[in-house]
Backbone:
């Protein structure tokens, strides 16, 4: 009897790539351009993973919708400019990320996907600069879904691949990722090196401290 298809979904910012420098820079630039008080670094990193309009609304809750819209556009422009200037250096892969992607990609019954608060443009550019365009069979982005932790991204990835929820895992660094996994009835694997403290990952099935621990974590969930 053949092994069932499995789906491993990855968050991106804070999980696969360390983009905090780019995120803080772009958010700072956006607020400064409108002469607004810049949120502190911890506040900015706390919203990573949310879709951008939701993130801005949390960081600037008292601003009018029109101002929030301008902050969103300012962030996009600043982030895009930084990416064009820095290339892969703007969002380097975390240690072990490429190896685990290659390892899992080589397993015939394992499909890889992405569920991210990034835009389609941002995700496509990131995968291209790191040479990973061919590795992910389903790419769920903020453009087409409600913000995390709504389960829409995972549910669509399951539908795309034909994999059951019991055979899927969501890997991420934030409470939003783990809450999304729980809402979709999918196991969540938290990573400790991202932008939310380990204590925020209480909905995770387990938390890993390095990518080389992921195969054992997956085996523990599926075996």
Residues:
């Amino acid at each position: 009897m053949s092994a069932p298809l499995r789906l491993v979904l990855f968050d991106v910012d804070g999980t696969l790539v360390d983009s905090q420098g780019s995120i803080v820079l772009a958010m700072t630039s956006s607020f400064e351009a409108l002469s607004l008080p810049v949120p502190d670094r911890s506040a900015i990193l706390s919203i990573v993973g949310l879709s951008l309009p939701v993130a801005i609304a949390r960081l600037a809750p008292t601003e009018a919708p029109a101002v929030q819209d301008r902050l969103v556009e300012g962030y996009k422009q600043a982030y895009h400019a930084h990416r064009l200037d820095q290339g892969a250096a703007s969002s380097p892969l975390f240690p072990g990320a490429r190896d685990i992607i290659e390892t899992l990609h080589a397993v015939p019954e394992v499909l890889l996907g992405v569920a991210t608060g990034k835009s389609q443009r941002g995700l496509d550019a990131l995968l291209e600069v790191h040479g990973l365009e061919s590795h992910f069979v389903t790419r769920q982005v903020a453009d087409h879904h409600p913000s995390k932790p709504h389960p829409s991204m995972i549910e669509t990835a399951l539908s795309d691949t034909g994999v059951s929820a019991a055979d899927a895992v969501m890997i991420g660094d934030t409470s939003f990722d783990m809450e999304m996994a729980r809402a979709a009835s999918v196991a969540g694997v938290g990573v400790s090196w991202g932008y939310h403290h380990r204590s925020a990952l209480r909905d995770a099935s387990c938390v890993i401290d390095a990518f080389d621990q992921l195969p054992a974590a997956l085996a523990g969930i599926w075996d």
The two ends are 15 Å apart (CA to CA). Strands lie at 6-10, 110-115, 138-140, 168-172, 187-191, 206-208. The longest strand covers residues 110-115.
